[in-house]
Each structure stands twice: as structure tokens, then as C-alpha cells.
Amino acid sequence: MASHKPSQHSLAVVTGAGSGIGRAFALELAKRGGRVLCADINLASANETVAMIEAKGGEAWSARCDVGVLDQVEALATTAEQHFGSPATLVINNAGIGIGGKAIGEVTMADWKFTMDVNLWGVIHGCHVFAPRLRALKRGGIINVASTASFAAAPTMGPYNVTKAAVLALTETLSAEMAGTGIHVTALCPTFVKTNIVKDGRIAGGSADFAAKLVARTGVSPEGVVKKTLDALDRNQLYVLPQIDARLIWRAKRLAPALYTRGAGLLNRIFLK
């Protein structure tokens, strides 16, 4: 199978494109010569992203999409084909929410369901709808935005950890299924990125303040994360851990998993006293 770079001159669909990492993906893909359909549940935010792309001479469209609803994701694929004149060649399943601050048993079932609908079902729907189209094209790529939480669960983040772990498992499965087909599959697993995920999420009590401080002090720019991820996709690299702390956590969890888990619990109690 001839080598190709899915991030170059793509026909791209980006969910959660109205802000943060999603917006950064949309802008960078347009910079790389792509045409971009910017999807978001907040249409006004998606329109802002489109305007930013068009201001730089790029080509983009917006669409409102609740990724937790399969019919809307299927409609998004149809809309993309109408704009592009052919199926999308690159899909960024980015839409997600942050949630935390409550222990298992205290998190409401409503919060569990809301998080599952967006963070997990949204990615499942994106893969379910677009993977067959990509197989038919025999080229292109899928990026699923997971998190370091996908392999290193922290206390009081149950719904977030569970959904991101499932996204990583889904991405690994899809990568195995796509091996040798010409379709590149990548999982993005960052730590803190300077986005609105804390402000716009459902993070309770002192955890929200602590997370906001960590984002401010240690968070990296979404633009840098996106460039690394797209370059990794072009190399058909499955895992992207864009920050040094993510890579250190990856190694610690694998070298001493029980010690890591106990340490995470102890640090959580110390910092959130």
C-alpha cells in the first residue's frame, strides 16, 4: 500500500470544532490544504471557527451536531459528502466534556449518562458511521481524542476515566482492524491542555479549582498538541502522548501499576484537603 499523509489536503470532519483542541485541529488542517467541516453542538462557536479559516483563505463549513445521537452523526457524514463532493477522508472524533470531583456512588446517574453519551457514544458513533466510508476509499484516517486518563485513572473522575479508557480500547481495536488497509488510526492522550474543558465541564468543588490551576500552570497550547498529533497520524502512529508528563505517567503505570494507583489516591487526598 503506497504511503500517504492523511493530514495533507484532507476532506476533514472535526467534531467539537467550536473551541479548544477541535478548533486547533480545524485551523491546522485548513493550513495543510484541507477542506473542513466544523461540527459542534454550539453552532455559533462552529461558525466562529469557520470564519477564522476563511479569513486565512481556507475553505470550511459549519454544522450543528450532537455526537451522542447516531442520526445526527449519520446526517453529518451526508452533509460532509454534499460539501466535499465525495466522502470525508479524515475524521477527528474530538467532542468531549470534563467531569469530576465526586467519588463513585456520589456521581449521579444523570452525570454518568451525560458523560457516556458525549465522551464514549460520540466516538463510537463517529467510528461506526465513518469507518466503512474510509474502508471503501482505502485511504484516509481517524483520530480519536482520548486522554492520559484512558490508561491512568485518577480518583473522583470515574465517568471521565471510564469513557476515555473505552475510547482508547475502541481506537486500538479499530487500528487492528484497519491494519494493511491504508487507513491510519491514532489515539491522542494528552494531560492538561489550555482549553475550556474545566470551565465548561461538570467538575465539582475543590477539584474544579485544582484542575483550573493545573491547566493554567502546566497546560500546553492546543496548537502544539494538534501539530504533533497530525504528524503522528501521517506516520500511522497509534499512540500520541504529546507531553513529557503523559509519557512519564505511561511508564509509571506500566512499571508499577499498583504503586501508581495507591500513589494517585494519596496525592488526591493531600491536594484536595
CATH class: Alpha Beta
- Based on CA atoms alone, the radius of gyration comes out at 18 Å
CATH topology: Rossmann fold
Give the strand line-up of the largest sheet.
3-2-1-4-6-7-9
Give the low-confidence spans. Answer: 206-216
Fraction of residues in helices?
40-55%
H/E element sequence:
EHEHEHEEHEHEHEHHEHH
- State the total count of DSSP E strands: 9
Oligomeric organization of the protein chains: single chain
Largest sheet: 7 strands, parallel
> What is the domain total for the residues?
1
Binned strand content: 5-15%
Shape type? globular
Q: Which architecture does the CATH hierarchy give at level 2?
A: 3-Layer(aba) Sandwich
Number of helices: 10
